[in-house]
Specification:
Elements (H helix, E strand, L loop, with lengths): L1 H20 L16 E2 L31 E2 L7 E2 L6 H9 L5 H6 L7 E2 L5 E5 L4 H6 L6 H12 L8 E4 L13 H18 L3 E5 L1 H8 L5 H4 L3 E4 L2 E6 L2 H6 L4 H15 L4
Parallel strand pairs: 5-6, 5-7, 7-9
Antiparallel strand pairs: 1-8, 2-3, 4-6, 8-9
Length: 269
């Protein structure tokens, strides 16, 4: 514990010295975090409000870019800065050159940024690229991706209609789960990516994505069947397609989650 405290004390001292050299003499007061809102799932008998094709869905003002130097909290460490990239293309280039995670940077073939409609109303978010994604540079292109395509088709959606991304942008060796520090390092890019897309709905695929985005330790089973909030986006959590390939019986649960998500979006199935 003493060594841990000394290490962070040294990191903070270096950071403060750097800010002083840059002419920063005073740090802004930390802003209180708003309470995370949880919205109960609608009753099965509730009638959805279909989206009119000629009425575009307005983007929420809460997704306006926060600007350079925005900080996000990190458990057991100093606050980190969100990327200040002005476009998804610029952010993708920044991600491609990232070496914050030495193991991932030294073993990846390439980074896997995201794909789909850059102004999508709905984002699907997994945890990390796999072997096929690392090879091709696109998320969800293996067997799990093929199943995701079928899920989208069942919802009358296409990959071009949504945006698909992962919590981290490099493949962990052996397809292991991302480490906490890896999730922290990539959060600066994820936050900015979502700010630039400004989705109104996010579907977390699997426990790692759901727990990391919502900052909770609750199981995916407990996070399902409820509409959560992340900033101004509604979040629905379900099983990862890779899990469904190993446990086909859970497909019916995922279909229930998709029905909940489509209901919230006002889309009839």
């Amino acid at each position: 514990m003493v060594e841990h405290s000394e290490r962070w004390r040294s990191v903070l001292a270096d950071r403060l010295e750097s800010l002083a050299r840059a002419g920063v003499g005073q740090l802004p007061k930390a802003r209180a975090r708003p309470p995370r809102e949880v919205v109960d799932a609608p009753a099965a008998s509730s009638a959805p409000d279909p989206i009119k094709e000629d009425t575009p869905m307005p983007k929420s003002s809460a997704w306006q870019p926060l600007g350079s130097g925005t900080l996000f909290d990190v458990e057991d460490g100093p606050r980190q800065e969100v990327s200040a990239a002005s476009t998804l293309e610029t952010l993708q280039q920044e991600v491609a050159g990232c070496t914050l995670c030495h193991e991932l940077a030294s073993t990846r073939t390439q980074t896997v940024f995201g794909v789909g409609n850059p102004q999508a109303q709905l984002c699907f978010m997994g945890e990390a690229p796999g072997a096929d994604e690392d090879r091709l540079g696109e998320p969800f292109v293996g067997r799990a991706g093929q199943l995701l395509n079928k899920i989208l088709a069942a919802c009358n959606l296409r990959r071009e209609d949504v945006y698909i991304l992962n919590m981290i942008k490099c493949r962990p060796p052996g397809n292991r789960n991302p480490l906490p520090q890896e999730l922290t390092n990539c959060r600066r890019y994820l936050e900015r990516q979502l700010e630039l897309i400004r989705p109104e709905f996010i579907c977390c695929l699997g426990a790692v994505a759901a727990q990391s985005l919502l900052e909770t330790t609750a199981s995916i089973g407990r996070l399902r069947k409820t509409v959560h909030k992340y900033r101004d986006a509604k979040v629905v959590c379900t099983y990862h397609p890779a899990y469904l390939l190993r446990n086909p019986a859970a497909k019916k649960d995922t279909w229930e989650d998709m029905q909940l998500l489509m209901h919230e979006m006002g889309i009839e199935l």
